[in-house]
Structure formats: C-alpha cells, structure tokens
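In response to the reviewer comment on reproducibility (Comment 2.3), we provide here a single inverse folding case reported in full, input and output, so that an independent group could reproduce the run without further information from us. The structure tokens appear first.
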C-alpha cells in the first residue's frame, strides 16, 4: 500500500504541543534544557487570523507523507537551505540558542556546518513523523557539538518563551501559515534583544508554468477553473511583512531556481516529497483523470525543452530581520539634518565644473 493511502489515520494529529526526547547521543538533561525554552500555548489566548486560507490539519498530513517520501538529499532544497545559512557567515555575532521551525528541517541541520556558533538547537515541526525523521537522521551529522532537541508544534501558535532565543530559522515553511504576520511577530517575541530572524519562503512566481497549464486544461476540459496552486506572497510584500512584525534592519532578497524534470508527473512527485502540494481550505479534492493528462500534455507542449525535459520555476524570497536593541544603528529623526541637499548639489556641482 502506498504511504499516502493511509493519511486518514491521523486526522487530528498532535493538537497539543508535545516535546520529544533528544537523540540518544545527547544526555537526558538536554530534554529539560529544551523544556526551559517552551511555554504552554492556548488557542483562545493567541492572536489568530479570522480569514483562513490553508487547511492546517491537512498540512500536517502532507508533512507526514513528505517524511515518508523525502529524498535523502534534494538539490533544490539543499540550495535554498545553504543560501539561507550563508547569511550567518555575514554576522560577527554568535547565536548560542537557535530554533529551526517548519519546512526543511533536515537540510538545515545537515548543512549547518558550525555556522552561527550554535550550541543549543531546537528542531520544531507540526508533523510528528517529520520530527521523528529528523531525530533519526541526527546520527548522520558528524563533528558538530550541538545539543539538539526536538519538538512537535505549530508555527501559528509558537510554544516558545519570550526572549529565550538568539536565532530563529525557517526554511520553506512559513508560507503555509494562515496569519504570516502573526507568526513572524511570535518569532520576534521569542528572540532576545538583538536576536536574528532568518526565513525563506516561496514567492508568487513559483510554479508559474504549472499554473498556466492547469488553467488552460481546466478551461478546456471542465469549462472553468478551481484553485489548484496555493497563493504565495509577492516580493513587494516581504519588506512590509518584516516591518509590520516589528523587526529592525529588515532585508529582503530573491533567488529564482529553475528545476528540470522528465515530465509533469515527476514534478508532482517532487512536490509531494517536499510537502508542497495544494493545502487550500477551498480546494477541490478530486482531479479528473482527463484534466490531469491534459495538464501534463499542455505543460509539455508549451514549455518543454529540446531534450524533452520541462522547467519548473521556484521563486524563493529570503527575509532577514533583527529584534530591536540599543546597539543597532537607527535612522535620525525627521528634520534633524544639518546640511541640505541643495548645499550638497552646489558643492559637487562646483567641483565638477
């Protein structure tokens, strides 16, 4: 039986926050150390978005399935995780305590390679099976003296005490939250002053080829369209998200990856293995066979290369933000300048003439 045939078994998976024991290579006292960073969460006390876009229970099932299908090494996911972690090398500051939440946990842990001088690392996902896979893979990480703990928790209700972390990392996970600004605010509150927030999310240009092929196929076969690909943030919104969440020194940059597949079906299998398939609340659970085949044929006819492969575009938005601290540079208040731009223009104009 295929693993995804039995997803209905865990319909309300881990509604309460659960902490797992650290890997057996760590002392049992590290579990207590991880618990020191955790706090109880209550749905009625947390700020939630009334407007729901994603089915979070179904999202957990997707992550469960991804933990079974996930490749040992995924070149695309590894590239995103490595580029995200590169930002730690640009910081002179060290980050003794870090949280890695949601998304590609295993890739982040495997590619950390001592960056950030992390001493204590908490790995958190909404999926128990994903956390279990990461814990089992901990034995493959060598030559790193990092005390690692594992936790099952939801990014929308972050079970972390305020001002307890030096670093929060999220690689390809936060774009599935219903209240992205709220999740980022919780990340900021969990950071100590001058703590760093690093995140990579998929942008709005992701899978643009598949969107076109799906739309054309549905119009031809069904006479209308239904949402098949999740809505994603645009680049212009990323800076506003960081500012709205209260981060200082916000930074946003974008990378675009083009991955080639033998066919559209191979693309779908890769999306399943990454846990990146449709999780909309208003999704149509059924996809007709002829519509699916038409989508694959249209994709091939419109975008296939000479060698027969098809491209898939992934737009990745990297976000960087800091929790406010007195040591950080700040902009001067409006009107405090002592030199006008007219004087500068006159000075440089006279020099050039």
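Designed residues, in position order:
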């Amino acid at each position: 039986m295929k693993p995804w045939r039995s997803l209905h078994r865990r319909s309300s998976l881990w509604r309460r926050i659960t902490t797992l024991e650290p890997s057996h290579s760590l002392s049992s006292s590290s579990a207590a150390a991880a618990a020191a960073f955790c706090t109880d969460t209550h749905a009625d006390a947390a700020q939630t978005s009334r407007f729901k876009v994603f089915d979070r229970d179904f999202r957990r099932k997707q992550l469960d399935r991804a933990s079974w299908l996930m490749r040992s090494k995924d070149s695309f996911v590894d590239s995103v995780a490595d580029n995200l972690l590169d930002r730690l090398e640009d910081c002179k500051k060290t980050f003794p305590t870090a949280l890695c939440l949601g998304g590609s946990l295993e890739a982040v842990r495997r590619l950390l390679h001592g960056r950030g001088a992390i001493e204590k690392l908490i790995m958190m996902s909404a999926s128990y099976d994903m956390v279990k896979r990461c814990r089992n893979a901990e034995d493959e990480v060598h030559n790193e003296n990092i005390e690692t703990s594992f936790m099952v928790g939801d990014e929308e209700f972050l079970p972390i005490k305020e001002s307890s972390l030096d670093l929060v990392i999220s690689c390809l996970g936060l774009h599935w939250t219903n209240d992205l600004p709220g999740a980022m605010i919780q990340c900021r509150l969990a950071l100590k002053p001058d703590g760093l927030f690093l995140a990579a999310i998929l942008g709005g240009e992701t899978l643009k080829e598949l969107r076109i092929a799906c739309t054309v196929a549905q119009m031809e076969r069904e006479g209308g369209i239904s949402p098949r690909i999740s809505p994603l943030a645009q680049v212009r919104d990323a800076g506003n998200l960081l500012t709205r969440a209260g981060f200082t020194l916000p930074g946003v940059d974008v990378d675009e990856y083009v991955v080639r597949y033998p066919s559209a079906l191979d693309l779908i299998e890769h999306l399943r293995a990454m846990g990146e398939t449709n999780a909309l609340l208003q999704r149509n659970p059924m996809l007709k066979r002829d519509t699916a085949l038409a989508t694959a044929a249209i994709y091939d006819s419109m975008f296939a290369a000479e060698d027969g492969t098809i491209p898939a575009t992934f737009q990745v938005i990297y976000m960087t933000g800091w929790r406010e601290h007195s040591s950080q540079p700040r902009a001067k208040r409006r009107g405090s300048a002592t030199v006008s731009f007219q004087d500068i223009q006159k000075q440089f104009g006279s020099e050039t003439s």
